Amino acid sequence: MLSTITKPDIRISAVIFLLLRALVPTALSQNALQIPDTLSGTKIDLDLRTDSFSFYPGFYTQTMGVNSAILGPTLFLNKGDLVKFSVKNSLPDTTTLHWHGLHVSSSDDGGPHTIIAPGTTWSPEFRILNRAATYWYHPHLHHKTDKHVSKGISGLLIVRDQFEAKLPLPRSYGSDDFPMVIQTKDFDTNKEILIHSNNDDVVMVNATIEPFLKVGAQVIRCRVLNGSSQRTFNLGLTDNHVMYLIASDGGLLNKPESVTRLMLSPGERAEILIDFSEDKGKKIALLSYASELANGIYGASNPGMGPGMNLTGYKPNVLNGTDFNVLEFKIGAPTANPITQIPNNLINNTRIPESQSDITRNLLLSPRTMGMNQLNGGFLINNQKFSPTRIDYRIPINNTEIWSIRNMSGIAHPFHIHDVQFFILDRNGMSPSSAELGLKDVVLIRPQETVRFITKFEDFADTTVPYMFHCHMLTHEDDGMMEQFIVFDTSQTLSFRKVNANRRPITYPNPVYDSKIFLNSENNTTVKEINLYSVTGEKLTEVGIFSKNTEFVIEIPLGLNGWYFLEVVTESTSSYERVLINN
After folding, report:
1. Domain range holding 449?
2. Torsions phi, psi for 4 (to 5 deg)
3. What are the beta bridge partners of residue 468?
4. 232: Cβ–Cβ under 8 A, 6 or more apart, which residues?
5. Do residues 284 and 241 lie in contact, with contact meaning Cβ atoms separated by under 8 Å?
6. What was the pLDDT predicted at 520?
7. Does residue 518 sit in helix, strand or coil?
8. How many domains does the chain have?
9. What is the pTM of this model?
């Protein structure tokens, strides 16, 4: 259980501990892995608070946590349940709480627009629609996400459903089914956590430094979250002991995938099975094989594509490009009724056919400034920095879409989208690996790589509160590498019909990007007037009366964005054309 520890005086043992740690930075694991408490049911109370926590003997670090000094309880939810949350903000800061990976309405999503002021309580209520998987929750206030997460506010959220329940999998929490929130942090000389630091050289799991975990000689399940601000881990066991990946961000795979390495970027989750049946009495370590990471990934020897690309504070950092311990397993006697076999099959995922896509959106990730120092200059999406008042995409509900994301920067970015899970289609035209065939909500996009995924926007529409998409390196996100979209309901739009369609005037382009629509009056049709209507039927403006056989330029008032209907009135007919305006 994670809890506040009563503060003793600093003793000589603490000094000795710190000296030994300085002399032996790769000391053997010596602290039992802490296991977060749990909450379940349909009414869940969460209190975001400040506190202190002892990472090092004799030192007490100022932290933030949920119902405890650091991190938060693991939430167990059942698919189909209607759950009411009470989220009290006892912090001195305004904050939010985002349910990362959950498919909920934008007003319940906990993004930057849904703030919780100090001393107030947010009470979202929503039905759990996601399939069984490991999700998580964390703050999402613009400019403050990294601070609040680094200080300690993070927790796992485990959804269970009828399909997962029928599988022969470990699911005894803390006994054969283990939560693992892996993070790296930087501490000053007083052991206070430093924010926005690239010298994150302290590894911890569940807020435990140098952890060990006693497990049985049997099959165990690890629910792994990369909760770091920036670092990508390349996880593997000593002696290339096999791991079996059974679930990615959004749910179970079709079958277990045998792997010896598992790369997880910030925000990504994975569920793995490890068969320790023949390993009683052994100690087996989980490492991050950072020496195998390609340049251009935060955690490799060089954070940029080439050695000349520098990131302030990145060197020297003993973790970069070096294999290091994450956790040590100490394998003892099996538990009662152990799982001893890896299942052959899990569930049947139905991937969305590419042919069903309604639109392909092309996104660009780029540095604000080019050159060898670009890693220190911030990053953009579609050549824009985040604006909370700008809606970047307006997506019709039930649209199936392909998003094609090109990374033109010198560093890899973990791209995350709210609201939906997606299937990766390809990387630079090549099919994804078998480990990436499941549902995802975060994908690491390497330098000079294009990743395409397909998803469907369904169930929730709201033209007021947007969803977000962003880089999940929290320093990049806080610095503006984020955009937003709304999903709107087309069922309440005008039902327009084209009268005498063969003689209908032609308007272009559609979508409209520069506040102008061109109208071509063809077939000797005389245009008498043009009107613009909102999707609810409100008449917004009269454009004017024009002569026949002429191309006209129609000025769109500034500030209009989204779907509208353009009414074209001729001498004998009136027709409507739906146009998408992206001012």
Report:
1. 354-489
2. -70, 140
3. 484
4. 226, 263, 264, 265, 266, 293, 297, 298, 299, 412, 414, 444
5. yes
6. 62
7. strand
8. 2
9. 0.82
